[in-house]
Amino acid sequence: MITVQSNINAPIKTVWECWTSPEHITKWNNASDDWHTPYAENDLRTGGRFKSTMAAKDGSMSFDFEGEYTLVEHNKAIKYVMADGRKVDVYFTETQTGIEVIESFDPETVNPEEMQRGGWQAILDNFKKYVEDFYI
């Protein structure tokens, strides 16, 4: 598994809401400024499904990121299986400096693991910025 992490300086309620609510997901779920997420839906429960469309702002390409939740523990953990069968675990832990978000995922076989780690870390960094700069 590949792991990325970040410490978010915000209360758990805010972090959880921004991570799981489609109206927030569409504002932070991109790795670079030339991409965006114009659509997101989320049935946040064990057995529920989620889907978000990630697209290049110039319209040159887009793809759906989707899967099914295998575990949802409110304010603590989310586990899911992506449409291609890879597993993802996300943990939210309260610390003295905020909420530590640790996300681990099975790598795919097309791109180098360092590239995958960098992309997922960039999205997590964008989440941190969104929560700390715009939501609080």
Looking at this protein, list some descriptive labels.
alpha+beta; START-like_dom_sf; globular; Alpha-D-Glucose-1,6-Bisphosphate, Chain A, domain 4; ASHA1/2-like_C; single chain; 3 helices; 136 residues; 7 strands; 7-stranded antiparallel sheet; 43% strand
Overview of the molecule:
The chain has 136 residues and is of the alpha+beta class. It has a single domain, classed as Alpha-D-Glucose-1,6-Bisphosphate, Chain A, domain 4 (2-Layer Sandwich). It has three helices and seven strands. It has a seven-stranded antiparallel sheet. Strand 5 and strand 6 form a beta hairpin. Helix 1 crosses helix 2. It is globular, with a radius of gyration of 14 Å. The chain starts with a strand and ends with a helix. The mean pLDDT is 95.
Q: How would you concisely characterize the structure shown here?
A:
With 136 residues, the chain is α+β, with helices and mostly antiparallel strands. The protein is built from 3 helices and 7 strands, in the order βααββββββα.
The count of DSSP E runs of length 2 or more, i.e. the number of strands, is 7
The tally of domains stands at: 1
CATH class: Alpha Beta
Task: Characterize the biggest β-sheet.
Answer: 7 strands, antiparallel
Approximate strand percentage: 35-45%
Structural class: alpha+beta
CATH superfamily, by name, is START domain
Give, in spatial order, the strands making up the sheet with the most strands.
1-7-6-5-4-3-2
Q: Do you know the CATH topology?
A: Alpha-D-Glucose-1,6-Bisphosphate, Chain A, domain 4
CATH architecture tag: 2-Layer Sandwich
Family: Belongs to the AHA1 family.
Domain Activator of Hsp90 ATPase homologue 1/2-like C-terminal: 9-132
Pfam families: AHSA1
